[in-house]
Amino acid sequence: MPRSQGFPELKNDTFLRAAWGEDTDYTPVWCMRQAGRYLPEFRETRAAQDFFSTCRSPEACCELTLQPLRRFPLDAAIIFSDILVVPQALGMEVTMVPGKGPSFPEPLREDRDLERLRDPAAVASELGYVFQAITLTRQQLAGRVPLIGFAGAPWTLMTYMVEGGSSSTMAQAKRWLYQRPQASHQLLRILTDALVPYLVGQVAAGAQALQLFESHAGHLGPQLFNKFALPYIRDVAKRVKARLQESGLAPVPMIIFAKDGHFALEELAQAGYEVVGLDWTVAPEKARERVGKTVTLQGNLDPCALYASEEEIGRLVQQMLNDFGPQRYIANLGHGLYPDMDPEHVGAFVDAVHRYSRLLRQN
Predict the structure, then answer these.
(1) What would the mean pLDDT of 339-353 be, rounded to a whole number?
(2) What residues are paired with 296 via a beta bridge?
(3) Per-residue pLDDT tens for 68-95?
(4) 13, 38, 138, 160: which one is catalytic?
């Protein structure tokens, strides 16, 4: 694995300091899906290529990652990629159908389908294009802000692999949990074994923080979550940290974002991650009471609040910052930006966070 490739010195480490729980002069902010279709320049860059071809082009990923930073004074960049490159690397075919989303022509239907999957230890070597994108982007960022790497959590990846695409109920994936618990655990272990070297490889390539997306946590109640999601979320953090240490790589802060996983906040706060991401259905003060002082919180403005006027966005941000408090906090949305959002309003959100968080600290 390549060691830190003499990257430019980091000029703004506010996001990393907040992630580690250190005091900051203002609240750092970034947005999930900040490199996205709401930007005309993103649509222009992406127009020529199929989605996964774009993911496989380090130059394209680098350009898309940097676009929002040219417009807004964000405090972090997140590499442009997709959580489904992992199932692809395990040998599953995935296509992105315009207007419909991801599609797996041959989803997993029974236990023996697991034999089709490649050795998880080989996954990182299939995903060299992500590592190249990270290294290139880290160089091009020239130390402006830290670069975040990411992956989907095992349960969320399993849902796509079994459902064959998006689903409103996840009934097929949950049927597995109830009817095929052994095979489910086997699949979740395969995914965990693939994710650990993939995330470590991202750090070796230059990622300065990692976020794990458990986007489909909300389809599981507390029992299923504690049985089929949480153990693997914990395992990923523990093993990534151990592997970084063994590889002589500096530790990086890790973020867990379990959407609609409010029933498991306490467990997530103790799962080995420095930062717990919240969606907009969670009240910040209550979350803070429940997780205690040991983790940083990230979130959680309703993305649809960006449809409001710029003045109203300012008011909503002020309320949010008051509720979270000044320290151990990274501002973000409670989910990704939507394609029809006005970039001006994204700018208003970022500016409001910076402005009000400085004021809060003066008072």
Answers:
(1) 98
(2) 275
(3) 999 999 999 999 999 999 999 999 999 9
(4) 160
Residue 33 known to be catalytic: yes
Beta bridge partners of 77: 147
Predicted pLDDT at 5: 63
How far is the C-alpha of 63 from the C-alpha of 57, rounded, in Å?
A: 10
Would the pLDDT of 4 be above 80?
no
Query: DSSP E strands: which ranges in the chain?
Result: 77-78, 95-97, 101-103, 147-152, 209-214, 254-258, 275-277, 296-301, 329-333
Backbone φ, ψ for residue 247 (5° rounding): -85, 0
* Rounded (5°) CA angle 337-342-346: 60
Question: CB–CB of 259/293 below 8 Å?
Answer: no
State how far the Cα of 317 lies from the Cα of 331, in Å rounded to an integer: 9
Q: 198 catalytic, yes or no? A: no
User: pLDDT tens digits, residue range 241-287?
Assistant: 999 999 999 999 999 999 999 999 999 999 999 999 999 999 999 99
Catalytic residue chosen out of the listed positions 13, 46, 328, 356: 46
Question: Tell me, what DSSP letter sits at residue 305?
Answer: G
The residue behind tokens 């979550």 is 225
Nearest to 139 by CA among 33, 8, 332, 12: 8
- On the CB side of 172, CA atoms within 13 Å amount to 16
Residue 3 clears pLDDT 50, i.e. is over it: no
| Residue of 26, 33, 234, 279 marked active site | 33
Asked if 46 is an active-site residue, the reply is yes
CB 308 within 8 A of CB 343: no
Global pTM value: 0.98
Contact (CB, 8 A) for 240 and 274: no
Buried b (16+ CB within 10 A) or exposed e, 51-64: bbebbbbbebbbbb
Place of tokens 């153990």: 231
| Catalytic-labelled residue, pool 38, 56, 75, 82 | 82
The tokens of 299 are what? 């979130």
